[in-house]
């Protein structure tokens, strides 16, 4: 019997995230991730190390620090602080200082892509990176970090004046370090993460301009483009937002074809956007369901399990590796959809994805999640070396534990407020 036809019996129909054992298991997995990443990642010269499979720095003492790595660690440390994880405050402050004092370009404005111990390594100004600065500042504001407000104001001004294209309702992708040249490429990935960050900024400040921008991006990327493509999310466009199906880019950040993991990520973000927008944009929930089902129907390996990394435009797998982050995003999306849809399909897949994670992706011996598996599920490192970050896996573990009323940080705060009232 196929998963689409299968229904849960009444004896086993309750969502897993309501069950005490599952909730304890999720928090234990989250704590294991913190144990693996936090102390080992901290670079005494600023920023954070990338870690190998055993939890050791990948590049030694002069490790390159890319802005998304720094900011994601800050975001996760803020989550740790909100749930009461000792040590998270020091990690958060360490990262915030590095963003403000090193990634920030004090002379020309904006935030540079990467640094090492010698200074700037890649000075390009990328919307993808600035989205994560906005996310980090928003999360840091929720825990009261003293740099949060000025960083939030600074990065918001940069996004508004440099990246935001009001005529398209989306952000432009990349400038040279001195802002003198704007590359013609336009991509959904930077815009997807900008949507995530804009929602976090709205939650942190109450400023509806952030939410309006997030809704505009979702309309362009999903309602205008993905919906017309059978809810396959188009990744790559030219400067006029014309789809470029022949684009060949970076395998890690801009792979050719389509990436089912992003369909899953958008599914969760759309439900989040619907809730934050007072549930007035009904197309968002319908699109979220279609995106999730399309990712399962086209992206899930029916033989071995796991999501293929990329598909071509004939829906055939191209990069057949199974990465950790699409699996994590699928879990988060299934959790959000289960909160608002009674169709057993989403709960069935929530369980199936955690089964796969526990059996194949979680590294029970050394900690963290394996970043990459071959098609037959044996570990490999063709695309990603080591264990790149805590961000995706941590959110997969914690999202199901908190109300699906916005971002994870908002859910934690609301749950804490409810607990205080109950006492």
From TrEMBL:
<dbReference type="InterPro" id="IPR008928">
    <property type="entry name" value="6-hairpin_glycosidase_sf"/>
</dbReference>
<protein>
    <submittedName>
        <fullName>AGE family epimerase/isomerase</fullName>
    </submittedName>
</protein>
<dbReference type="Pfam" id="PF07221">
    <property type="entry name" value="GlcNAc_2-epim"/>
</dbReference>
<keyword id="KW-0413">Isomerase</keyword>
<dbReference type="InterPro" id="IPR034116">
    <property type="entry name" value="AGE_dom"/>
</dbReference>
<comment type="similarity">
    <text>Belongs to the N-acylglucosamine 2-epimerase family.</text>
</comment>
<dbReference type="InterPro" id="IPR012341">
    <property type="entry name" value="6hp_glycosidase-like_sf"/>
</dbReference>
<dbReference type="InterPro" id="IPR010819">
    <property type="entry name" value="AGE/CE"/>
</dbReference>
